[in-house]
Amino acid sequence: EVQLQASGGGLVQPGSSLTLSCTASGGDFTFTDYSMGWFRQVPGKERELVADISWSGGIAASADSVKGRFTTSRDNAKNTLYLQMDSLKPEDTAVYYCTRQSDYASRGQGTLVTVSS
User: Fold this and answer.
1) Are 45 and 112 in contact (CB under 8 A)?
2) Rounded to 5 degrees, what angle do the CA atoms 26, 73, 70 make?
3) Could you report the per-residue pLDDT of 34-73, keeping only the tens digit for each?
4) What pLDDT digit, counting tens, does each position of 91-104 carry?
5) What whole-number distance in Å separates Cα of residue 46 and Cα of residue 75?
6) Got the DSSP string for 5-44?
7) Helix or strand or coil: residue 90?
8) Which has more pLDDT, 108 or 25?
9) Residue 53 burial by CB count (10 A; 0-12/13-18/19+): exposed, middle or buried?
């Protein structure tokens, strides 16, 4: 069974930058077989797909709420997915998860990002 683990979260001030990483391992999972995504979840709110990227990394997209501020990328040699987050806002506070394709059920351990002054 694939294990996805996000890391790199923390407490930052508004306007700061943060880079999240996600490593994939285990089972018969071949990283390059799949597009990957980033979701965020705030308790009591609907989860949001903030970014996704094709298997090759050639096509990446982000939600309107983060467009121009968040960029996702991947290093297939390292089985690692990244989310570069710039100009962070308090409303970006959430637990961030990486997923296989856009399948929220595939998420593993998330990482908490708190944006606060």
Assistant:
1) no
2) 120
3) 999 999 999 899 999 999 999 998 889 999 999 999 999 9
4) 999 999 999 998 99
5) 29
6) EEE--EEE-TT--EEEEEEEESTT--GGGS-EEEEEE-TT
7) helix
8) 108
9) buried
Amino acid, single-letter form, for residue 1: E
Chain-centroid distance of CA 78 in Å reads: 16
Tokens of 89: 């806002």
Long-range contacts of 69-75 (CB under 8 A, 24+ apart): 70/38, 72/36, 72/38, 74/31, 74/36
Structure-token pair, residue 103: 């399948």
Q: What average pLDDT does the chain have?
A: 94
Q: Which helix (H) or strand (E) holds 58?
A: none
Q: Would you state the structure tokens that stand for residue 44, as one six-digit string?
A: 């009591």
Q: Using an 8 Å Cβ cutoff, are 107 and 39 in contact?
A: yes
Contact 83, 38 (CB under 8 A): yes
**Both tokens of residue 78?**
């390292």
